[in-house]
Design brief:
Distance between the termini: 11 Å
Order of helices and strands: HHHHHH
Number of helices: 6
Helix content: 55-70%
Length: 184
């Protein structure tokens, strides 16, 4: 089976309950969903986390394992964990990133952050003050105000994404590439 705990880029504890706790935390599943779980739940979570990297047959195997779980709430959550980063947006599951994807994402967001800092920090503070004065006076937001809000939103979103990438890098005590080779 190519979606075991050994294929994840984390150094997980050997204790099954602690593995469940840590994996649930990584993919944002309430611990109550997995607290009474066992090896089947660990394998199902691992399969859901690795889903976007698997071939069609392996994906069917993962879904079979997920659907075989007795906890329906966990089954539903794991289907979302598997499907969302695979078919909707990979950024919804930063924990599914390979080393290369994670480092490329960090580089991109760092470059955007550096550029935004270089170009806009002084102007943003002044334009923010001006925007607040104008909104207060006119009781409406002008086109220029909307542009300023969009720029601020973009910068804040980028900072949030950079923070998520940095948190994921920290979580991986030593960055390892997600291994999909069952012989490793």
């Amino acid at each position: 089976m190519s979606f075991s705990i050994n294929n994840l880029p984390y150094d997980l504890p050997s204790n099954l309950n602690e593995q469940l706790r840590m994996l649930a935390n990584i993919v944002d599943i309430p611990y109550s969903f997995v607290k009474d779980g066992g090896e089947d739940e660990v394998e199902a979570i691992c399969g859901a986390m690795l889903y976007r990297h698997l071939d069609r047959h392996q994906r069917m195997e993962v879904m079979t394992k997920i659907r075989a779980l007795s906890n329906r709430a966990l089954t539903g959550k794991l289907i979302s964990v598997a499907i969302e980063p695979t078919f909707i947006n990979k950024d919804l599951g930063i924990w599914s990133f390979t080393e290369e994807e994670l480092l490329a994402d960090k580089y991109f967001h760092s470059q955007v952050d550096s550029f935004a800092s270089y170009v806009g920090v002084g102007a943003s503070v002044l334009s923010g003050k001006d925007l607040l004065k104008q909104v207060w006076r006119q009781r409406k937001v002008t086109r220029g105000g909307v542009v300023t809000l969009v720029i601020w939103g973009t910068v804040l979103f980028n900072k949030s994404e950079l923070s998520k990438v940095n948190d994921e890098i920290k979580r991986r005590s030593s960055i390892r590439t997600i291994s999909l080779n069952p012989l490793q």
